[in-house]
Amino acid sequence: MATPQNEWETATKSGLLSVGTHRLHLSVSGPPRTPGSPIVIVEAGSGCSSHGWIAITRKVSSFARILIYDRAGLGQSESSPGPFPRTSEAIAGDLHALLETADIGPPYIMVGHSYSGIQIRKYVAMYADEVVGLVFVDANGEKAYTERPFKREHFEVMNSLDYLNITGVDENYKGLTEEEYTMLSAEKKGEDLAYEEAAVDIGKYNQYEKKVMGKAPVIVVKGNTWQDFRKLVEVVEERGLGTQEQRLYMRENLLGYRNADDRLQREQLRLSDQSKWVQAEHSGHLIYLLEPEIVVSAIEWVVDESKAVANRND
Length: 314
Description:
By secondary structure, the protein is an alpha/beta fold. The chain is 44% helix and 15% strand.
């Protein structure tokens, strides 16, 4: 645990810190840490900066210390010199170096959205003793790219569409000011990541079979991504995007995607003896923008339960 004089552990603070070859931007807020108290660390989804998590941060900082940061090349962080695509190991190494530079010590509670469900599990694989709780927000696991319908070619057909507008996020977001949301929607999206390779890699650790989190709290918050896809597929059909074969495949596999996504996300409950499932009924994939209160409650549950586990172990 760092000394009380370290402002990264006590104050509301933002800045760029070096991780060796480049600098990453981080922001911390919430009550000053006391010995043994966890800090919540957010890994945003692929291609997304931490800006979308401002509403979550405002709420969480009332009861816990929280850190949001931008991976290399996103938001206010500098780009990595490579190699590309970036691996989950490289990203976890960046975060570990960032925390060491800021002298922000464990214990950590990690929050991962979308692809970053894999990323926070990679951090656990590399630095297991540092993590005391996990929050998965409509998150991917090792079988996401092999057992769910919709492959890279189908996502590429939808990539040109205005996701936030078509799926209703523009009209229904919560917790952000109009200025904050405008900045978020204007951000350049995209990140050169080794998605499939990262999924295969995390599967090699057999974390489900080993119940790698033991009795540490794990919560899985699932949205309705298939409903987002349904809206996107309707626009793909209206505009005649992609091939007829691709459009037919997407239409016929919407329910298959829903069922596979539900099954695969539930597997994440196997990481711990103390796990909890939450269904976000009114969200698609971007739960943190549409129902931020559900994510905040999930984080609070993990914070409270992690403290209870620590007290039982004392």
